[in-house]
Amino acid sequence: MKIKICGIKDLTILDSCQKNNVNFYGLVFYKKSPRNVSIELASKLINYKKNFNIFPVGVFFNHYIDDVFDLIKKLNLRYIQLHGNEDNIYISKIKNKFDVRIIKAIGVRSKDDLEKIKMYSNADYYLFDYKPNKNELPGGNAKSFDWSLLKNININKPWFISGGINIDNISEILNNLIPYGIDISSGVEERPGIKSTHKINDLLEILNAK
């Protein structure tokens, strides 16, 4: 099972991810998010661990596609996550221009939301997350959806589960679901945008034991 920790902003936390065998770390390019990073900081983080077996994922929310192109080129990104209303055409334009793997986030509130995977056939992975209300920011809001909706789900592409995952509820996923990966953000934070090495160590101890 792959592990992704999203919203990385400093080298100490990236070190902790590496030591705990985390597979992916998310770099959030969304100015309204407390986890937002500048291009300069993202470049510093990427260069710091470029020779290690942990891969950066650029996370975007309804960006102008030319801006996404620019960041892919500047940072040499190989994985990106689209967390907004980007459609299949948007995904195709990126994949036709760059050799990248695309994770498409899908907000889930009911079983009907899972039908949206048919709209994103050009994505390489799906990420099922809590579906925010209109006044909420996307991702990293410490809220979960009904994970039982994913039980026995039959999808022809690998998928991640996300949304309020922490040390108190991780066993629910491990005991009942078989995702390709688990995406964690708020569950390893002291406060929004500030990750905790202790929380990462404690949660990954459970995951690495599986």
State the main characteristics.
TIM Barrel; alpha/beta; two-stranded antiparallel sheet; 22% strand; 10 strands; single chain; eight-stranded parallel barrel
| Name given to the CATH homologous superfamily | Aldolase class I
Estimated radius of gyration:
16 Å
Structural class: alpha/beta
Largest sheet: 8 strands, parallel, barrel
Taking pLDDT < 50 over at least 5 consecutive residues as the criterion, the unreliable ranges are: none
Indicate the CATH class. Answer: Alpha Beta
Strand order of the largest sheet: 1-2-3-4-5-6-7-8
CATH architecture: Alpha-Beta Barrel
Task: Describe the SSE topology.
Elements: E1 2-6, H1 11-19, E2 24-29, H2 39-48, E3 55-60, H3 65-75, E4 79-82, H4 88-97, E5 101-108, E6 125-130, E7 159-161, H5 170-176, E8 181-184, E9 189-191, E10 194-195, H6 197-208
